RNA sequence: GAGCAUAUAGCUCAGCAGGUAGAGCAUCUCACUUUUAAUGAGAGGGUCGAUGGUUCGAGUCCAUCUAUGCUCACCA
């Protein structure tokens, strides 16, 4: 730091302003290198951060890195003049510079820019942890990379400068979101925004973050889901709405959980969960193709194929297939006995729906590697889902499981206002008994439903986990720019 | 919430039952007008995460704390 400040002062003594206002960039590193034709001199103006410097006396080589990649610059005293070359002594790795010059190929074969003019664009005061790289047989070997996870997450800006694969992941994330948005727009859904600060939280089972509004002197919750607001909009007459929503859940953290995360929900009037399944498999195939150019994705040792259509199993069929046990039509006591035979230890307070869920989560879900729709859940755990049209005790809900993990959750939405009220009141009763994740009764939501909501299909997709799947990352912190951390 | 692990130079890491801190890269000086882990010669750089304790002596042993990672639990 001290050395850098001295270099900064030296530049000012030489009459160079180290923080100028603009630079007329005409070309970018990667396309320049890729489209270079031998013998062709293209005049260029490039800008970027200095990543390496090799000083040869009266000539120097250095690499700059811009948003597309790196390109080497060749700087000769005879070409840029005494003044500039002298000033270059005070340029450091990490500085952002602009270069005018022309393209050429060096004796060793690297496409480079022969500088005719060099400008400091921003002096860096902190040394960046650049790794040494060497190409051996076309493979890049990186020495001493900036790899400390804590530092990478705390200083993502440095991580992004130094670790190109990190940038890749986030560009893929953006592409994924863009693909979804284009797809939903092509279905004529309306992109909307709904409140993050909610007086009653609902739409999911989770503990909320609580805050306070001073002027109104009232408690507000950061949303744990936006479902109930999107349904109000369906009541309001939109045929389809969607929202990319940051949601907040006050729960533990792990490589699959961050307290704030991104959820896409969309709702389409006059459709049911069968329609939604077809839509989802088309969407996921499109995402994989758009982001990776293939429907194949590597997850750990497994290779997953996201090509539609996906296998469909009811929850009862899935449990039977993987445990050999029949759960359809069984009473709570019978289910508890089955769980016992399988070796599951269960809290005696939980009901039959929860027992099935435990069996499924323990013995089935981890084994579902290829994309599989699991349909028809027990009613107890789905207070916002429409009863199954033909199977008692079940609801029209599905989850898509890929690589042993849930990636989305969808229903034929409950639009019977009387049924809905009863279910929310059951939730409220659970909450009374100390289940602080049970939903409260949102009277305004019920009022909306009472005005009449068309039959509707709805879905929630965890964008972070989907990004993990598509980009092959195994921690949610690697797909969120600034994951939640304790203060330093 | 529980267990295990980690914390030493800007970065990546060594540091051998306790004896006063080291390497590579980065930085600085000199040389070098096609180098690419440039090269050659030289130099500087550290409250060893924090606080206590044991000891003649602690980076090293013990305790507590803090942060992080991994696993489990929790969590649609």
Using brief descriptors, characterize the structure shown.
488 residues, alpha+beta, 5-stranded mixed barrel, 20 strands, RNA-binding
Fold and architecture overview:
By secondary structure, the protein is an alpha+beta fold. It contains 14 helices and 20 strands. It has helices at 2-13, 29-35, 77-88, 149-154, 156-162, 164-186, 227-235, 273-292, 315-323, 332-341, 352-364, 417-432, 443-450, 463-471, and strands spanning 43-55, 59-65, 70-76, 96-105, 111-122, 132-136, 139-143, 190-191, 197-198, 210-213, 218-222, 240-248, 260-269, 296-299, 302-305, 311-314, 372-378, 394-402, 405-412, 456-462. An 8-stranded mixed sheet has the order 8-12-13-20-19-18-17-16, sandwiched between helices. Strands 1-2-3-5-4 form a 5-stranded mixed beta barrel. It has a 3-stranded antiparallel sheet with strand order 9-11-10, with no helix packed on it. A hairpin with a 4-residue loop joins strand 2 (59-65) and strand 3. The longest helix is centred in the middle third of the chain and has 23 residues, at 164-186. The mean pLDDT is 91. The protein binds one RNA strand of 76 nucleotides through strand 1, strand 2, strand 3, strand 6 and helix 4.
Fold topology:
Elements: H1 2-13, H2 29-35, E1 43-55, E2 59-65, E3 70-76, H3 77-88, E4 96-105, E5 111-122, E6 132-136, E7 139-143, H4 149-154, H5 156-162, H6 164-186, E8 190-191, E9 197-198, E10 210-213, E11 218-222, H7 227-235, E12 240-248, E13 260-269, H8 273-292, E14 296-299, E15 302-305, E16 311-314, H9 315-323, H10 332-341, H11 352-364, E17 372-378, E18 394-402, E19 405-412, H12 417-432, H13 443-450, E20 456-462, H14 463-471
Parallel strand pairs: 3-5, 8-12, 16-17
Antiparallel strand pairs: 1-2, 1-4, 2-3, 4-5, 6-7, 9-11, 10-11, 12-13, 13-20, 14-15, 17-18, 18-19, 19-20
The structure holds one RNA strand of 76 nucleotides.
């Amino acid at each position: 730091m001290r050395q850098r400040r001295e270099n900064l002062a030296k530049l000012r003594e030489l009459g160079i302003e180290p923080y100028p206002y603009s630079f007329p960039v005409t070309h970018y590193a990667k396309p320049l290198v890729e489209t270079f034709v031998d013998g062709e001199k293209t005049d260029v103006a490039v800008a970027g951060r200095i990543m390496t410097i090799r000083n040869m006396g009266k000539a120097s080589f250095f690499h700059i890195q811009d948003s597309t990649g790196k390109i080497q610059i060749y700087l000769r005293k005879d070409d840029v003049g005494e003044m500039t070359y002298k000033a270059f002594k005070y340029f450091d790795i990490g500085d952002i510079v602009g270069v005018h010059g022309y393209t050429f190929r060096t004796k060793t074969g690297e496409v480079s820019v022969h500088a005719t003019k060099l400008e400091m664009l921003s002096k860096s005061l902190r040394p960046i942890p650049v790794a040494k790289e060497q190409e051996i047989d076309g493979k890049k070997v990186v020495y001493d990379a900036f790899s400390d996870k804590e530092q990478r997450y705390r200083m993502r800006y440095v991580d992004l400068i130094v670790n190109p694969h990190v940038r890749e992941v986030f560009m893929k994330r953006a592409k994924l979101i863009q693909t979804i948005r284009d797809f939903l727009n092509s279905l004529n859904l309306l992109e909307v925004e709904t409140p993050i600060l909610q007086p009653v939280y609902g739409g999911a089972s989770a503990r909320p973050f609580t805050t306070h509004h001073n002027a109104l002197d009232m408690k507000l919750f950061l949303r744990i889901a936006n479902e109930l607001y999107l349904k109000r909009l369906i009541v309001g007459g939109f045929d389809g709405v969607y929202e990319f929503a940051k949601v907040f859940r006050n729960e533990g953290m792990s490589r699959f959980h961050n307290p704030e995360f991104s959820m896409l929900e969309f709702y389409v009037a006059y459709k049911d969960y069968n329609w939604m399944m077809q839509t989802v498999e088309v969407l996921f195939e499109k995402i994989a193709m758009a982001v990776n150019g293939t429907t194949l994705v590597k997850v750990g040792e497994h290779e997953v194929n996201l090509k539609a259509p996906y296998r469909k199993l009811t929850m009862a069929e899935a449990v039977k297939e993987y445990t050999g046990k029949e759960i359809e039509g069984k009473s709570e006591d019978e289910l508890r006995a089955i769980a016992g035979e399988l070796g599951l230890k269960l809290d005696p307070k939980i009901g039959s729906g929860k027992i099935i869920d435990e069996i499924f989560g323990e013995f089935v879900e981890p084994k579902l590697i290829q994309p599989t729709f699991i349909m028809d859940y027990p009613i107890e755990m789905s207070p916002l889902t429409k009863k199954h049209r033909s199977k008692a005790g079940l609801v029209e809900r599905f989850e898509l499981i890929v690589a042993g993990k849930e990636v989305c959750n969808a229903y034929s939405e409950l639009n019977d206002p009387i049924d809905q009220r009863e279910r929310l009141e059951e939730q409220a009763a659970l909450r009374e008994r100390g289940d602080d994740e049970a939903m409260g009764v949102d009277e305004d939501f019920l009022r909306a439903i009472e005005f009449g909501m068309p039959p509707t299909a709805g879905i929630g997709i965890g964008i972070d986990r989907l990004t993990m799947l598509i980009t092959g990352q195994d921690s949610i912190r690697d797909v969120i720019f600034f994951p939640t951390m304790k203060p330093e």
